[in-house]
Each structure stands twice: as structure tokens, then as C-alpha cells.
Amino acid sequence: MSLVMPAPDPATLAKRAEIVAALRAIVPGEGVIDDIESLRAYESDGLTAYRQPPMVCVLPETVEQVAAILRWCHGNRVKVVPRGAGTSLSGGALPLADGVLLGMARFNRVLDIDYADRVAVVQPGVTNLAITCAVEDAGFYYAPDPSSQIACTIGGNVAENSGGVHCLKYGLTTNNVLGVELVTMEGDVIRLGGRGLEPAGLDLLGVIVGSEGLLGVVTEVTVRILPRPQTAQALLIGFPSVESAGQCVADVIAAGIIPAGMEMMDRAAVHAAEDFVHAGYPLDVEALLIVELDGPVAECGHLSGEVERIALANGAVSVRASVDEAERIAFWAGRKAAFPAAGRLSPDYYCMDGTIPRRRLPHVLNRMNELSGQYGLGVINVFHAGDGNLHPLILYDANQPGQLEAAEAFGADILRLCVEVGGVLTGEHGVGVEKRDLMPVMFSEADLAQQQRVKCAFDPELLLNPGKVFPELHRCAELGRMHIHRGEVPFPDLPRF
């Protein structure tokens, strides 16, 4: 592992038995896992290149148990790493050797569905797809749909601000979450937002969504549900070059058309997905766009025609529209299976996540091909073209000496390229440990200090998910926060106001 995590605290490790006993007193039965073999199930998340078994894992079932666990760990200065389904691709749930892994899998109930207010209240362990399944009989659905939606949980979606193929029109998690119940590191239970569309006070909900488990543990989420559109149609559009496909994307948006989804796959990704799913993709193209329009029948038909016109003007060599719902789903099945399909091409792959301005797509893709030759590693491209969120998959073999390190360096260069052209380090996977050491590429020292002050406001002892996001986590006192040691403030004789 080339990644450096915080060194384990010997004092904490020495009292492991005491920690396990305290957790068992809070969560009885099978809620505490401490044997080494069972802990291996939690040693990594979706970024499997990095592994670290936790000191102990605890699986609470109630909010009271979560609060008691955090309160005890805070009082005894024990680090805590929250974990959902473990599908994070940035190492956000990577455990600590001297930390408690707080698994939220047992919080898996849909608590309430209110069709009048168009909201659902769910626990964080409910999977993304399960929300849609719970409301689809009434003609509703939950819009954000990451490719891992069958497994990823809403709590993890909140932590990483996940998106999906339909986030172009309907927004990411942050645009679809109305409120959360949150337990702080001190064990306090608070509520942010709610069912209303305009909550009063500071927008702390906006701070929590995307905070990657650094600020608190979410125990309940209120999400927006939407009525199913009257109709939806997907277009498969093949292009002779990535450049022409990229220009088509820019021209569609410039025409004022906001598709429900607009995805691009390069030649290698198209072939891999078609061999895996048999979705009917054309194999004689260099780039494939999947464009979905939805809404009233007349509007959908008109916009589909406009997209086809723009595509043909950009040199499209094939255009195929879905004729029914089954075919539309089949078109998307290939795209959503692109990641597992890539697993058939190489023993390992490294999935990157960066976002760029749409107009820079051709330049960035060409530069990635150059980097592929430089590092001697293959790369296939699957991404949310409509909002410029790239997901290049770097192909490598971890059993070959030096290839993991080369893949890491290749990925870092891709992310630097994203920032160089005016983009950002992540679109939806989060920073975690994967992009942690690249944060100074995008943010100045002052920028990072301000972000860390938010961390200090929620978690002044820096016990919650340490080692993630910030390349160098300063003590709160170093950022201007008064440090109180054993109840004594510095310079007690000075007057305080």
C-alpha cells in the first residue's frame, strides 16, 4: 500500500479488550465483531487496492445505541469510522487499525412515505434502489441513480453526494435530500432540514451532504420523491470520433435541451459492455452517446428529434431510438454494467472520478490516451457526458510489480488534468483517501484551513473518520480554536469577553 494512514495509537490498542467490552454493553448479542477473520469483511470498501482491518466493528440497531457508542468513544478518545454498504470508490470507509468501525447496515427500514408532500423518510442503510421500489407502485421514484444503486445505501449517498446517470436533469443527492437526523461525535442527536422546502437557519444540511463521514453519523434521511414522467425515450448515437461526440454534447446543452441523462462510452467501453450485456450497441463506432429525454409525449418526441438533428450535424453515423420501455432499460443496462464489464478485460482496474467543463472533453480524452501510452496501461472511458463527470477505468494487474503504483500515478495525472482545464477533483465518489493528497492541487492552504475549521466545529477532537479528505489534518488549536486541556484554558488570568 503506497497510501499513508495515521499511525495507530499504542495506548488505544492496549485497551482493545476494554473497548470491546464497553461496546458489547451498549450493543448486546451479535452486534460487536472482534475476531480477526470476521473483521476481514470490513478491511476495505470499493477501492479494494487499499486494505486495513479495523480494531473492532460494531453494528447498532437504534439511534440511542449510535449516540451511546459515539459518546463513549468521545469520552475515551477512541476514533470512529462510519460505514454504509462499503461501495465507496474513494476509500471513504477505509478502517483504522486503532479505530471502531461503525456499521450502519442494520438501519435498513423505510420509515414513512408521504405522497402528498412527495417525500420518503428512510434509514441510512436502505439501498438507493429500494427507495424507488417502495414507491413505484404509486407512480413515483427516487431520481439519483448511481450505477451501484442496487447495493449502495442512502447514507453513503449522503456522505459522498452521489449522482448517477440521471443527475443532469434531476440533480445529485444534495438536490434531493430535504432533511437528516444526525448524531454528533459527542453523542448529541440533532435534526437538520425536514419536510419543508425552505428550512430556517443556516444551511447546515448543505454542509452535511458530501461531508464524507467527517462531521457526524446520519441515522435518518428525508428524501424527495418524484412522479414518474409520462414517457421516456433513449437514443443510442454512434460517432466516428470522441471529438464529434463531445461536440454534440456541448451543442445539445447549448440548444437549451436538458436531457434526463446523457452518457458517453468510448470504443473499448462499448465493446466490453456489449460483450457482457448484449444491449444492442453498435460496434463500429469510436464513441457512443446514450441520450434520454423524458416528459409529456409531445415534448419528448420533439426533443428527441432535435437531439437527432444536432447529432447528425456533428457527423453521427448511427441513431437508434428505443421503441418501448424494455428497450430503453436495455440501453441503460449496458451503461450501468460498464464497470463489471471492464473486469473481464483486466485482472484489476482503478476507477477514477473527476469533473471538467464539457467543452474540454475532446482535449482531456486525447490527453488521457497519451498518458495511457506513457504509463503502458490501458484505459477505457465511461462518463456522465452531460455534466462532464469522467469515470476513466485504468486497467492494471496488481500481481505485476509496479503496476498498482503506475495506475495510481496515472490516476493522479488525470485528476491534475481535470483541475488544469478548470474542473474539480471529484464529481460524486468523494475525496476519501484516494484524492486526499491531491487536495492542494485544487485548494490553497487558506482554502483547506477554512474547510478544516468546519470539521473542528463538529468534531473538535478529530475523532470521526480521521485520515480522510485533508492531506494534513491540523489540531483545531493550530487553526485558531482555543485549546482547553483538562478543563484549563491557556493564560487564565487574562480577561475573557
Describe the structure.
With 497 residues, this protein is an alpha+beta fold. It folds into 4 domains: 10-103, Uridine Diphospho-n-acetylenolpyruvylglucosamine Reductase, domain 2; 110-227, Uridine Diphospho-n-acetylenolpyruvylglucosamine Reductase, domain 3 (2-Layer Sandwich), CATH 3.30.465.10; 231-340, 2-Layer Sandwich (Alpha-Beta Plaits), CATH 3.30.70.3450; 346-434, Alpha-Beta Plaits. The chain has 17 helices and 19 strands. The protein has helices at residues 10-14, 16-26, 36-39, 63-75, 128-135, 154-160, 167-170, 204-208, 242-254, 267-277, 297-313, 325-336, 338-342, 361-375, 403-420, 439-442, 445-458, and strands at 32-33, 56-58, 79-83, 99-103, 110-114, 119-122, 140-141, 177-183, 189-193, 217-224, 226-227, 231-239, 261-266, 287-295, 318-321, 348-351, 354-355, 379-384, 389-396. A hairpin with a 5-residue loop joins β8 and β9 (189-193). α9 (242-254) packs across α11 and α9 (242-254) runs antiparallel to α14 (361-375). This is FAD-binding protein.
